[in-house]
């Protein structure tokens, strides 16, 4: 994203506008001097008349570049994705276009010119009206004071214009997560305001709140797992400290009506999960869930564990039988980021590994008439189990997902119902490896590994091997 007028240094065009504005202010003084030719006596102008003079000076300066500036603005054309999150573009009104058009230095030049011109015009009016130096000074003071008030009004509009500029810039971005802190600082610098200014800070908090709320997916949509990282990055780009950001999270929570249905309750729980991970160890003193919402620590623990398990289950789907090392490391990192315990993570991975094995078993059982297919599925199971065993003893295995190690289906609740099917597959594989009539150590090791995977008793496996040997012997 590129910033227009990112620097406080006035551009040639801005300097020209300042000079033109000063010229307009001078011309207003000249118009007042023309009062000398009038026959009727004029008193010191009323505050309303003086305000009109100052207003005409400001509006004239604004008109010099108003039309072109409104087309350019602070940002490029707004993008729908940004507007969906942050709302549409904010238009400027009153003296705001002048503030937006001029950098701080040029703006100061215009203000001084307006005040000086008004003071000079007031001096002439006073001299003409009263004919004495005293009345001339009084007239200058009157118009000068009104002009100072007008300049103060311009200055008071600066934070609001800066906030609008920030809003339009972020709302017009293609991807808000790519916002950088330097861009926010450049916008503040452009208008000559501090990022700690109350109005500017309020806009920062509003943008942050809209962004967080958009990521928790109010309703039944699940978290994607990337929300915490995105929020932390956006928070850093905006330059918000933990206290201000935590207050925004609490305000979001207040807007969620937990009694309005399951969807709102789920949104509240997702907010708790995401918020606690954003602030990590500081959440206990930054986030008063119990005091503000009556949520107890045990309830928060349940929410954190349930949400972490849901996200982790989705991540485990990326792990296939190939056991890519990079994926194993990334899933482990995510587990730690979600604050999911090693015990739960290990159990979940073992269940995932079993499901992969069960898929092989199901395919093999559906192709019992095709011995080649059955053997291929069993070999896939053995290969997968062997890799799990090797990786569980691999140097630096603490970097990998928890739960690596040999698989066994024994002890599962439905094992007894499936044991006959498993025996058939074991027999088919034994027939394949013993088809030449020889049983060496490698073959025996593979058969023993398969027996452990299927959860067969030793005597059951030995009986099957004996039967297979007898059938193979009969063929010779």
From TrEMBL:
Source organism, top-level taxon: Eukaryota
GO terms (BP aspect): protein import into chloroplast stroma
Record's GO cellular component terms: TOC-TIC supercomplex I
Record InterPro entries: TIC110 (IPR031610)
Name of a matching Pfam family: Tic110
Protein name: Chloroplast inner envelope protein
């Amino acid at each position: 994203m590129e910033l227009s007028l990112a620097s406080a240094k006035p551009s040639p065009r801005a300097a020209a506008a300042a000079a033109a504005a000063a010229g307009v202010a001078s011309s207003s003084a000249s118009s007042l001097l023309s009062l000398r030719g009038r026959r009727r006596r004029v008193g010191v102008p009323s505050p309303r008349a003086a305000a009109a003079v100052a207003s005409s000076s400001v509006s004239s300066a604004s008109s010099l570049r108003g039309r072109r500036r409104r087309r350019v603005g602070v940002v490029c054309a707004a993008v729908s994705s940004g507007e969906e999150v942050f709302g549409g573009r904010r238009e400027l009104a009153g003296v705001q276009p002048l503030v937006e058009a001029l950098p701080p230095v040029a703006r100061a030049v215009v203000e001084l010119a307006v005040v000086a011109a008004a003071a000079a015009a007031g001096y002439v009016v006073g001299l003409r009206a009263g004919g004495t130096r005293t009345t001339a000074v009084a007239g200058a003071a009157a118009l000068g004071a009104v002009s100072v008030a007008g300049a103060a009004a311009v200055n008071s509009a600066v934070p609001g214009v800066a906030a609008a500029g920030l809003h339009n810039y972020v709302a017009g971005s293609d991807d808000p997560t790519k916002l950088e802190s330097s861009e926010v600082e450049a916008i503040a610098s452009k208008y000559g305001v501090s990022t700690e200014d109350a109005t500017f800070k309020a806009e920062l908090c509003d943008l942050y709140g809209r962004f967080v709320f958009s990521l928790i997916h109010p309703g039944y949509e699940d978290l994607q797992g990337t929300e915490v990282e995105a929020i932390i990055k956006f928070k850093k780009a905006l330059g918000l400290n933990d206290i201000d950001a935590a207050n925004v999270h609490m305000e979001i929570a207040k807007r969620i009506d937990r009694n309005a249905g399951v969807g709102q309750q789920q949104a509240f729980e997702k907010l708790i999960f995401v918020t606690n991970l954003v602030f990590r160890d500081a959440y206990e003193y930054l986030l008063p869930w119990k005091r503000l919402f009556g949520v107890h620590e045990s309830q928060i623990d349940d929410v954190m564990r349930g949400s972490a398990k849901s996200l982790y289950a989705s991540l485990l789907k990326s792990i296939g039988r190939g056991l890519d090392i990079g994926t194993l490391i990334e899933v482990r990192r995510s587990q730690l980021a979600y604050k999911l315990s090693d015990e739960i993570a290990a159990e979940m991975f073992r269940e995932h590994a079993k499901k992969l094995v069960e898929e092989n078993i199901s395919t093999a059982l559906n192709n019992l008439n095709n011995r080649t297919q059955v053997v291929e599925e069993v070999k896939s199971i053995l290969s997968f189990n062997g890799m799990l065993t090797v990786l569980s003893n691999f140097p630096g295995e603490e970097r990998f997902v928890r739960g690596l190690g040999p698989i066994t289906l024994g002890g599962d609740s439905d094992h007894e119902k499936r044991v006959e099917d498993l025996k058939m597959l074991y027999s088919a594989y034994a027939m394949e490896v013993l088809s030449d009539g020889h049983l060496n150590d490698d073959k025996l090791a593979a058969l023993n590994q398969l027996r452990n995977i299927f959860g067969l008793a030793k005597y059951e496996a030995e009986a099957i091997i004996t039967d297979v040997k007898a059938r193979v012997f009969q063929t010779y």
